Structure to design on (385 residues):
């Protein structure tokens, strides 16, 4: 069977896969290996990054660690000049305050209300607020190199600020975008090779905007867990959660350090047990150039053009459910992302309603063409950055 099911998940298999050790000789560019996580001192690696042969070797080392070995790298002093980080922090914090003033203290759908502040699309918001600070912040060749090592050239950067206050609670262990944002039911509908594909379509990273000792709740990581193919189904299961709790590792970060990991690595933000550290990180989600279609299609218009005739046939019983599904798959956008997380939060799941689901819902409810058009337009507006 080319499908994975939650019932296939086996904790013993998982444990065997995780019973491994990253050796120093596998990561010759690393300054040290701590709890199976290779730690790189970026100022020392500038020469290597500027030499094409050495650069390939270093990028290859990172890719191998993230794909086949422990799944995560820490890059110390990714920003040697932490003044750049401080300037960006100041702007991000004022943007957070502005948003609070405008829309009140919204709950973040990835944490309990009040425990954190989130600034969605910090990339765009920073550029709009202060282009010079944006340039200083994003013109970082170390980040460019690690993104290239995982995704190749042509990648697409997105970023979100997460500020966790003292007392902020740990997350449950999980995997990240794409499949990590889907329910187990949805994941089961994708054939097994797509479970292997999902992690190579994105890279997950974080820039530390302050010193983050372990007690401030720096990300908990489970080395080697990205290698478990059924992990998108397994991470919600009790034995896997327990195993995570007993075996995760945490590496303190300094301001300007970064961590990058395979999005299939089991991980969770930790408890902020400090009294005074506002744990500020910019989370980077970098997408492969290849996660795109060949052509641009105006799917909103397509849906509007097709709907009246589809509704006629639906009401007359001359189109089957299977045919309708096929038609909508060819017509409407079938995925929730990319979107604006500010205006299009997930409803009743981990991902917001798709255009396909919207049209299917309208059809089922007997919505008029005008109603459909209004809903489609509202969705397009919600998704716009
Ligand atoms: Fe995550």
């Amino acid at each position: 069977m080319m499908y994975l099911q939650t019932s296939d998940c086996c904790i013993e298999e998982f444990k065997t896969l995780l019973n491994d050790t990253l050796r120093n000789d596998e990561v010759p560019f690393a300054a040290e290996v701590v709890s199976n996580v290779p730690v790189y001192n970026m100022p020392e690696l500038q020469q290597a990054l500027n030499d094409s042969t050495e650069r390939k070797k270093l990028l290859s080392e990172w890719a191998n660690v993230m794909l086949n070995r422990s799944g995560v790298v820490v890059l110390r002093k990714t920003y040697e000049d932490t003044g750049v980080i401080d300037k960006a922090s100041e702007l991000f914090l004022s943007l957070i305050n502005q948003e609070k003033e405008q829309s009140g203290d919204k709950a973040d759908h990835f944490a309990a209300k009040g425990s954190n502040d989130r600034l969605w699309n910090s990339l765009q918001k920073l550029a709009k607020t202060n282009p010079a600070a944006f340039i200083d912040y994003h013109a970082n060749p170390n980040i460019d190199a690690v993104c290239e090592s995982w995704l190749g050239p042509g990648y697409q950067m997105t970023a979100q600020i997460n500020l966790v206050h003292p007392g902020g609670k740990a997350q449950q262990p999980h995997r990240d975008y794409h499949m990590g944002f889907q329910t187990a039911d949805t994941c089961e509908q994708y054939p097994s090779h797509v479970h292997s594909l999902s992690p190579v379509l994105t890279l997950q990273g974080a820039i530390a905007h302050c010193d983050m000792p372990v007690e401030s709740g720096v990300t908990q990581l489970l080395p080697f867990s990205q290698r478990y193919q059924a992990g998108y189904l397994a991470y919600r299961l009790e034995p896997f959660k327990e195993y995570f709790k007993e075996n995760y590792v945490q590496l303190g970060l300094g301001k300007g350090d970064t961590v990058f990991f395979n999005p299939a690595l089991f991980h969770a933000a930790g408890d902020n047990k400090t009294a005074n550290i506002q744990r500020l990180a910019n989370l980077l989600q970098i997408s492969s150039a290849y996660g795109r279609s060949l052509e641009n299609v105006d799917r909103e218009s397509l849906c509007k053009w097709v709907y009246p005739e589809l509704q006629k046939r639906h009401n007359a019983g001359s189109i089957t459910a299977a045919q309708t599904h096929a038609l909508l798959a060819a017509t409407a956008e079938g995925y929730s992302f990319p979107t604006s997380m500010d205006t299009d939060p997930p409803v009743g799941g981990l991902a917001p309603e798709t255009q396909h689901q919207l049209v299917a819902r309208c059809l089922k409810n007997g919505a008029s063409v005008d109603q459909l058009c209004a809903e489609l337009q509202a969705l397009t507006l919600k998704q716009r950055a």
In short: The pocket of fe (ii) ion is lined by residues 174, 176, 267 (CB under 6 Å). The chain is about 40% helix and 15% strand.
